[in-house]
Predict the 3D structure of the following.
Amino acid sequence: MSSFAPSTSPLSYKDAGVDIDAGDALVERIKPLAKKTMREGVLAGIGGFGALFEVPKRYKEPVLVSGTDGVGTKLRLAFEWQMHDTVGIDLVAMSVNDVLVQGAEPLFFLDYFACGKLDVDTAAAVVGGIARGCELSGCALIGGETAEMPGMYPDGEYDLAGFAVGAVEKSKILTGQSVAAGDVVLGLASAGVHSNGFSLVRKVIERAAADLPATLDGRPFREAIMAPTRLYVKPVLEALAVHPIKALAHITGGGLLENIPRVLPEGTAAHLQKGSWPQTELFAWLQKVAGIDDIEMNRTFNNGIGMVVVVAAEHAEATAATLQAAGEQVHRIGTIAPRADGAAVVVV
């Protein structure tokens, strides 16, 4: 005999907090957004158990390059300020910019959106940003997962993760091993804080409290803080196609001081010239309120430089011109020098 008492009313998945109909509605909202990102190689995208992608036949010896990331505590401000339409761009940018550093063209992207209770409008705004980031990067949004998990997240909150896969010819992989003393370091301007250092940004906002500036760099305060990570893919791929770039570094967590060393060979150092790129109002305000020195600024934030390009001196001017023509703000921020044992890898 069963020890369970008979139920007088059935329990549905919706009663347990999972709304399948809302999930289906979100998928229908997402489909036209994802369709805009389709490109060569997509065989089957959203809707199946797995997405299918064929590496374009123009590659002779394709090497796949993958990158994964999230948006971090920037999401706390997205929740508080109800600004959900750009964090999806951040999500894409964090991975595609990393893949780009190896010289790879991003091919496709998948996302993971998790929440306690699915709000279709919020989720559609987030995924709309993801689709926009993919469109601007030339990669296809071919799949993802929306997970509604009651009890796991407070109302109105969610988490994001994603990953990108790109391809590069085996003979054209950027390793940084050819970087040598005398090479020039070019810096591509960032759009703002991007998606790193927000635990400190939030502390600064808390400290400034009622004395927050109305605008920073000509934008309303909140828009300046939440400006999405710049997508460097198309301009840098244009430059890679015509110039012998030696190394690239995406300036994320750890700033200039900890990301540039990742692409330098032993015995070399990057000597950056302070003042060779402008400090924006945003970063000047963060530094002033936080009360931190230049070293802490350059290892916490991108501090105005979102991507670093290393080229031989004779190619620096032409490379900068190509990047500028493609829409980038380019600054000549330093040179590569010999490094003695125990010396700093990046000197500002």
User: Anything to note?
Assistant: The first helix runs from residue 20 to 35. The CA atoms of residues 86 and 129 lie 5 Å apart. The radius of gyration is 22 Å. The mean pLDDT is 93.
